[in-house]
Write a structure and sequence with these properties.
By secondary structure, the protein is of the alpha+beta class. Among the domains are: about 280 residues, FAD/NAD(P)-binding domain (3-Layer(bba) Sandwich); about 130 residues, Galactose-binding domain-like (Jelly Rolls), CATH 2.60.120.260. About 20% of the residues lie in helices and about 25% in strands. The protein is built from 13 helices and 34 strands. The N terminus is likely disordered. InterPro entries: CBD-like_Golvesin-Xly, FAD/NAD-bd_sf, HdrA-like, TAT_signal. This is FAD-dependent oxidoreductase. Pfam families: FAD_oxidored, Golvesin_C.
Amino acid sequence: MPYTRRTMIQATLLGTGATILSPTRATAAGPVITADLVVYGATPGGLAAAVQFRRSGGTAVVVEAGTHVGGMTTAGLGATDTGNTAAIGGLSHEFYRRVYGRYNGTPVTATSPARFTFEPHVAAAVFTDLLTEAGVTVHVGRPLATVTRAGNRIVELSTQDGQVYRGLMYVDASYEGDLLAKAGVASTVGREGNAQYGESINGVQLRDKHQFTKAVDPYVTPGNPASGLLPGVSAATLAPNGTADGRIQAYNFRMCLTKAADRVPFPRPDGYDAGRYALLLRYIEAGYTGPFFNAVSVGGGKTDSNNDGAFSTDDIGMNTAYPTASFAARDTIVAEHRTYQQGLMWFLSNDTRVPAAIRSATAAWGLAADEFGGTGHWPPQLYVREARRMVSAYVMTEHNCRGAAPVADSVGLASYTMDSHNCQRLVVGSGTTAVAKNEGDVQVGVPGPYQISYRSIVPVEAQCANLLVPVCLSASHIAYGSIRMEPVFMVLGQSAAVAARLALTAGSNVPVQQVSVATLQSQLRALGQRIDISGNSEIVVDSRSASGVTRAGTWLSSISIGGYYGSDYEHDNNTAKGVNRLRFTPALPAAGAWTVQLRWTAHANRASNVPVDVVHAGGLSTFGVDQRTSGGQWVALGTFQFTAGSAGSVLIRTEQTDGYVIADAARFVRA
C-alpha cells in the first residue's frame, strides 16, 4: 500500500494512550506545526529523542512517513541485539526495565532488573507509556516532501500532504536518512573498500557464515550457463575481498511465530511463484534439512524469527535500490520482500516436492494471533538494516569497534558484533565447478564496549548547523553493522536530544557542532547514560548473548521455571554428565577486582552439587553450588582480580551432578 494511501493507525500496537495523528485522503494540511525540536522518524531512536527533549522542558513533535510507531522494536525484533548489556544506559536501559516491570507487575526504579526479550505488543505498550507521560505527539502517514533552509540551518520541512513542521532543532531518526539527504548533508550508500579507512572486513566478503554447505548448481539446466540463472542468483562477477561496491546487507521481516493452537497459518501471498524457490529446492535435494529460519523465544510462547542459513528469510540482493528510492518505489520493494518471505514459508509448509518432515516441521509454526492484527498478523515494518549513512567530520570505523581508536567526545557505547548479512548471491567457479554462493556475511566480535563520537551524529557544520542524526550516523559499512542496534539508537537518540537542548539554552544560533562536549557528557552521565569505557560497573553474559558463551555437549532451552535472566535458561537434560559444559566469558573493560555472580532457576529436580570454575588473574577457583535453592537471584561466588579483556571466565560443569544443571547467566560487578 503506497504511503499516500496509508490512513490506518496501528491501534493494536500503540493503544490509545499516546497522541497519534494520522491524515486521511480528505485531510487538508493544517496550520504550521511548531516545536523546539522536530523529530523525523518514529523509530526507537526518534521516540527516545522526543521523550528526552520533553522531559527537559522543551517542546517536541515526531513526524513519521509510515503508519507504524516504534520501528523494529515493536515490529517483531523482540530478541534484542544487546551485545554487552552493561553498555546500555539512560533512557534506553529504562525502556528495558519498563519491559521487565510490565511482565512482572513491579514498579520501575533506577535499579530495577531489565528484560531484553519481549513480545511486540509489550514493547508497544511501553512506548505508549513513555510517549503519554512525556506528552509527545506522533504524526504518522507523513512522508517527507521538502526541506527549507536558511543558510546552513533547516527552517522547516513539509510532508506530502502539505503539512509544514517548523522547529529550531531537528533530528533525523529515520532508518533511511531522508531528512539529512533533503537538507543537503553528505551521505553514502554501500560498502567502502578496505583501503578507504584501513579496515580489514569491509567491502566484498566471501566467507563461511550463512553459506551453502552443499554444492548447488546455479543454472536452470544444471551445468549449462546458456540456460540462464535460477531466480535470486546474480550475474555479477565476484570481486576480490575488500573491494568497494554499492551493495547493502539484506532485509527481511522479523516474524513473531508460535505453535499455539490459535496460530494463523502462513498465508499464500498474491503473486506467489514457486519458481522463486528452485534454488532452495535444489539445495534440499542435495541433502540440506535446515534450519530455514530460527525461533528465538521472546515469551508468551512466541518467537522472534530471523534469517538462518544460506537460503532463508533474507531476500538477498533485492534491496539495493531501496535507500535512495522514492516512497512509491520503496513500497514496491517492501511488497516484493513480503511476497518473497510469505512465499518462502508457504513453500516450505505446502509444496509437495519438499520432504514431508520439513513441511510438517514448518507448518507446526504460524503467526501469533494476538500480534499485528492491523496487518494480517504479519510484521508491519521491513527490517531496514542499513540505508544511507551520513559522512561527517568523524567516521566511525572498524578501528573504533576493535577498541583501537578511543574518542574524547563519547556520547554512548556500542558493543555488538561487527555484523553484516549477505549482500548478494552469485556464481563462484565455472563449468562443472560452478556453484551458488552468498557473499557479504560478516560476524566478527568486538573485544568490549567502545565509544561513539559526538561528531559522528552531527553533520559538518557548513552543511547543517541544527540537525542531529542518531540512526543513519557517520560510520563505515562494517562499523555501522555493529552500531546499528535498537538499544544503541535509543542511546544516541537521547544523547542527540540533550545536545539539541544545550544548543537552544546556550543561544538560538549556537550550532550543534559547537555545543560544549564537557557539559553534554556531564548531563548524560547524570541521566545514567554510559559513555565511559572505564566506567562500566557491571558486565552480564547471558546464555543467549551474541558473544562470550561457549558450549560442549547438548544444552536445551527452557522457560518452565521463572526467575531466569533474559529470554530463557538452558539445562543439560540431566544427561551426558561430564560431557555437557558451558562457559561464560566476559569482555571486561578494565583490570581490577570484580565480584562474580551466577544465576539459575531453582527446583527440586535440580542438582545440589554443580561444580563451577572461576578463571581469574590469580588462577582457578572451584565452587559447588546448590541449584535447588536461591533461584531467580544473583548469587555471589566471590571477588577476584581480573585482567582487562576476555582472559577470565566462569565454567559450569556437570560431572557427577545429582540432577538437572542450569546455565542461565553470569554477572561481573566492579568491586
